[in-house]
Amino acid sequence: MEKTIDENIQGTTLELDSKKQNTKKLYMESYGCAMNFSDSEIVASILTKQGYNTTNKLEDADLVLVNTCSIRDKAEQTVRKRLEKYNAVKRDLNPNMKVGVLGCMAERLKSKFLEEEKIVDMVVGPDAYKDLPNLLKEVEAGRDAVNVVLSKDETYGDISPVRLDSNGVTALVSITRGCDNMCTFCVVPFTRGRERSRDPQSILKEIQDLAEKGYKEITLLGQNVDSYLWYGGGLKKDFKSATEMEKATATDFAQLLELVAKAQPKMRIRFSTSNPQDMHEEVLHMVAKYDNICNHIHLPVQSGSSRILKEMNRLHTREEYITLIDKIRTIIPECSISQDMIVGFPTETEEDHQDTLSLMEYVKYNFGYMYKYSERPGTMAARKLEDDVPEATKSRRLAEIVAAQRAHGAERTKAFVGKTVEVLVERESKKNENEWSGRTEQNIVAVFPKGNHKIGDFVNVKIKDSTSATLIGEAL
Ligand code: SAH
Ligand code: F3S
């Protein structure tokens, strides 16, 4: 008995000591995709060991880190505006503050960033975060620091992320890094390098830790998850030269899904993003087989025109995509499907645009993310094709696909009215403090009166009404 008390006291003291040591303040902002948010949790973990605590007050920060996105010009402009803000705070309130840029813009602009934006002290690419302790020493000594080296094998599999802005219920777990697909519009293969997969054992361990902390849902994350292939480490493209043994014992995405589903039967499992050309039927069978793998597939298509898909170097046709959609509907009848779409890719005609609208009509996606084409320096499309669709045409086409998506979303959500769905409670509804907000396994937001339920509960909710994107119901 006494021993237990002693141990507790000792434990508390140790914890206080380690917090006391962390006196430096880190302010961090993240932009862009889920992968960036996941990376920021790795960076926070590395910096915690360097004596930093996070703060949400910019004016108090010793170090400001901004994790940046390059996917569209607008994303880069957003970061430039934030740098202006940091500049003003540094000038007026906090002259000793240091500023580092991380992520895709850091990788794209490299040391040019230091010239273009005087406020920046440090530039760190997505594969170089383990070098942060060294880079920070340089910065603290008053020198600029840059590391934008891309890696063949870095997956940060050995780093246990510090969860940021967490609801304690859902978490991101990264399983691959980089992308080999070379879609002609996309900057990601340049900023995040070649594709490599993370050791399944480290993935399982991270998820087990999350389960022990009470997390209820994880999303396996990668630019192209279906391409996951673990054969002992190294780049995916080098798999052909792996040994016979490595080939025979390799783990692909369907196998990884099964490992996770079996290891964590009580956890909801999601994955994102699937590129249609890399999705195998085996993955669909896993989703169908395991109740805890959510019936939702994010399946970006970008365009409904086979001609444009070819120009984009998406390695499938409209017809092959439709065949895949039909397969999903057969194997997983309850599956929701979502999309990413680009309008105004170079040379896109009115006929191509109509093909996109008719494909949307065929699939009737549950939801989607739609963008105007934004030319990215260095990509194949920027080098070979003129950005020739006028801005006004891009805007009109975007408005048309957004309207179509809204109508399809409304039709899909309405089909749930009268049904009972399982909702994992994530947060208070933004519109009504007396309601919870959560998601169904199809990844549709549902709200309902709080009752005695709490965040992290799985609740059976009877759906009474719907909007284009939200289900409205009551707990049973
Ligand atoms: N595989 C990635 C996709 C990368 S970017 C993932 O995991 O989500 C996300 C989406 O941004 C793409 O699917 C595409 O629809 C859009 N996008 C990428 N490059 C773009 C560009 N140059 N202009 C407009 N939209 C773009
Ligand atoms: Fe980009 Fe295509 Fe890869 S959209 S991230 S190059 S699958």
From TrEMBL:
Required cofactor(s): [4Fe-4S] cluster
Pfam families in alphabetical order: Radical_SAM (PF04055), TRAM (PF01938), UPF0004 (PF00919)
Free-text comment on the cofactor: Binds 2 [4Fe-4S] clusters. One cluster is coordinated with 3 cysteines and an exchangeable S-adenosyl-L-methionine.
Enzyme class: transferase
SMART domains found in the cross-reference section: Elp3
Domain of life: Bacteria
Known catalytic reactions: N(6)-dimethylallyladenosine(37) in tRNA + (sulfur carrier)-SH + AH2 + 2 S-adenosyl-L-methionine = 2-methylsulfanyl-N(6)-dimethylallyladenosine(37) in tRNA + (sulfur carrier)-H + 5'-deoxyadenosine + L-methionine + A + S-adenosyl-L-homocysteine + 2 H(+)
Positions annotated to bind [4Fe-4S] cluster 2: C179, C183, C186
Family listed: Belongs to the methylthiotransferase family. MiaB subfamily.
Name this polypeptide is given: tRNA-2-methylthio-N(6)-dimethylallyladenosine synthase
Originating organism: Jejudonia soesokkakensis
